[in-house]
Amino acid sequence: MDSQPPAPAPSPRDSAGLVAVLALVVISVWLAARLRRWWDRRARVRRAARAQAAERDALGVLSEHGFRVLGRQVRRSWGLVADGDPLSFTLIADYLVEREGKRWVAEVKTGERALDLRHGPTRRQLLEYRQAFGADGVLLVDAEGRRLHDVRFFGGGHGARAGALPWLALGVALGIGIGVGAALWMTDGVAAPAPAARPAPRSPGAR
Q1: Considering the entire predicted model, what is its pTM?
Q2: How many domains is the chain built from?
């Protein structure tokens, strides 16, 4: 049986080329990671600058619609209970405003997606702020488009319960009034029994 000849050893030139390729791959990955971090940081800075500019512009939009600013970046401690364990956290509203004796929480948003009320995070944030701050309503401010949206939620909230109380009282009052009126009508409609007829007296000559 013939023995296989030994494989030729790689030349120093081939080894140097392989090391260079590996070094190039490592450097490329490192540069890509650095570039990605730089790009993400730049994007965050631009978003923060855009949000700050929008909050400043929102003051003019709120003023144009007759709202008076009570506070900016207003903090409110809130919490919940999960499986019997309390959990507290802090919420920060962009603005707390007032108009005609009512208070509103104003949230400033930029970008088409964040301003879309079909976007779950925006909708849930507005509902949470309304409940936590006990406001009469919430405002979604499009500072870049200089538009203001009055957002109201159906049922469940403090304002919804307060608004339903007058209607509930009116319904009860109407029910009582109808019941009393029907009882009186039925009483008046029952005729009193006629007195029994007396026999006519006979004349003396009648038999």
Answers
A1: 0.53
A2: 1
Question: Is residue 30 situated within a structural domain?
Answer: no
Per the structure, the complete domain to which residue 79 belongs is given by 48-159
Q: Give, for all 207 residues of the chain, the pLDDT tens digit.
A: 555 665 555 666 667 777 788 888 888 888 888 888 887 787 777 666 666 677 777 888 898 899 999 999 999 999 999 999 999 999 999 999 999 999 999 999 888 888 888 899 999 999 999 999 988 999 999 988 888 899 988 865 444 444 444 555 565 566 676 766 666 666 655 444 445 555 555 555 544
Contact by Cβ (8 Å): 59, 26:
no
Beta bridge partners of 75: 92
Q: Which two tokens stand for residue 127?
A: 């509902």
- 143: CATH: 3.90.320.10
Task: For the chain, give the DSSP string.
Answer: -PPPPPPPPPPHHHHHHHHHHHHHHHHHHHHHHHHHHHHHHHHHHHHHHHHHHHHHHHHHHHHHTT-EEEEEEEEEEEEEEETTEEEEEEEEEEEEEEETTEEEEEEEE-STTTT-TTSHHHHHHHHHHHHHHT-SEEEEEETTTTEEEEE---SSSHHHHHHHHHHHHHHHHHHHHHHHHHHHHHHHHSPPPPPPPPPPPPPTT--
